[in-house]
Design goal:
The structure is a single chain. With 275 residues, this protein is α+β, with helices and mostly antiparallel strands. It starts with a helix and ends with a helix. The chain contains seven helices and seven strands; from the N terminus they run αααβααββαββββα. Strands 1, 2, 3, 4, 5, 6 and 7 form a seven-stranded mixed sheet that branches. Helices cover 32% and strands 24% of the residues.
Amino acid sequence: FLAAHNSTSTSASTPLRKEQQQKLQGQGQPVDRNSQSASAPSPLPPGFNASMSSLKLDEPSQESSREPSRDRPPLSGFDPRLPPHPVFPPDARFIVIPEQDRPMLQVPVPPSLQQSAHRTIPPTKTSLAIPAAKAFVDLYYRHITLGEYTPLSHYYTPHAQKSISVGGAHSVVATKTDIMLQLQSLARSVFVVRGVVSQDTYDGRGAHILVTGVVQTGGVLTQFAHTISLVPVPQHGMYSFQIHNDALSLLTSLDEVAQPQQQQQQQQQYQQQQQ
């Protein structure tokens, strides 16, 4: 490109030099031939090929017109050859928000109906966090109580993670078989839900859920805290979700909570008797 520019500027300046020479000769002044040789175009700088002098701005080069390689993924990290969504197994199940719990989306009113007195504008409630949490609570703990741990394991994503914490012990699993075994260990447990907190994910499509309450497992009454992450499954419907993270923490049992209080009362009674 530089060489082409230099050659263009040189050819454009040639007629000007001839006119200057004629004027100088007419005035009787000598013409310096070395000044003409000094204005000759310089050689191409290092790194430039001679073929680059033939490039033009209005014509695409061979490199720019070449089709991208199909064997090399683009630099952005997105490979169009990969499926846009994960492939779910045939026995996959989905947590679906019931129709009566689905929020109404805000629909803009056409200008022709804005002056109508009988128009109805739906509410602006578009969050799915609360109805998704309600659908999860109704489905999950009912399956646990009925001992249906195998069907419940099909509501997890292919890359889901599940964990159970009891005191200082933790067990984390990430395969479908291990998830089913953990659910089996909780079979026939009775969960009494006392509080549910749900929040939209950052993209506004999923839900982060915190459930607290009391669970009776094997005749032992224990407080629990349960955190769940639901992810949307748009190819199955805009109201469909699956469990991507499931972390259940069994806290100190109610009997162990009452023991320190009983011991404190016994110590107070003992001190009073000594006095």
